[in-house]
Sequence to fold (236 residues):
Amino acid sequence: MNTIHAVADVIAFNPLNPEDWLRLFGDYAVYGVWFILFAETGLMIGFFLPGDSLLLVAGVLASAAFSTQGIQLNIWALLIGAPIFAILGAQLGHWLGARYGRKLFDKPNSRFFKQEYVHKAEHYFQKFGPRRAVVLARFIPIVRTFMNPVAGVLGMPARQFLVWNIVGAVLWVDGLLILGYLTADTLVEAIGGPDKIDKYIIPFVIVIVLLSAIPIFIEIYRERRAKRRAKVSAEI
Fold:
């Protein structure tokens, strides 16, 4: 019977659902968060992992409001350990890009890899410059995976990358963790109890992820405004 339940759990597992990942790791859920952040930012095959939603859900479930839901998470272990593994993953990605160059991306499109992912990361790197691109990419799914090796391929110095990698990782990881942690009580009150999280967590995550993308929209707006001003000055 236990085997049947185990098989059923594997079949029902959704790799895009952060709760499924946390349940998969069980008592080692904190370590699971660390591993997923490392894989998503350091291994190109990890681009599909649910970084944003995982951090938000982890922050929510680490609060006292959800302490009865069966997943035990320590907020301090998350706040300290998660950024470290996000930094280490990105550093690995940068090193791979610097070490192997463009041949790292020399592969045909497939179900798990598309050249457009690389092109999008290069676009942001050229658009915002190395420092801002490394920070802002943290808030863009898929781009945050490919930005690190792209930065290495395009010659961003390792020391400079490390500094902005740390800034981006702390803002992204701890920002989303704290946001989830602080809004947990409000979420419980809104949904009518911690046992109803499964029904409401996805809409909640979508809203928060959109809010986390605000820095990207601000940068795009500033750039367009600067271009308009430059155009007006040139016409004068």
In short: Residues 20 and 168 are 26 Å apart (CA to CA). The chain has twelve helices and no strands. Confidence is low (pLDDT under 50) at residues 1-10.
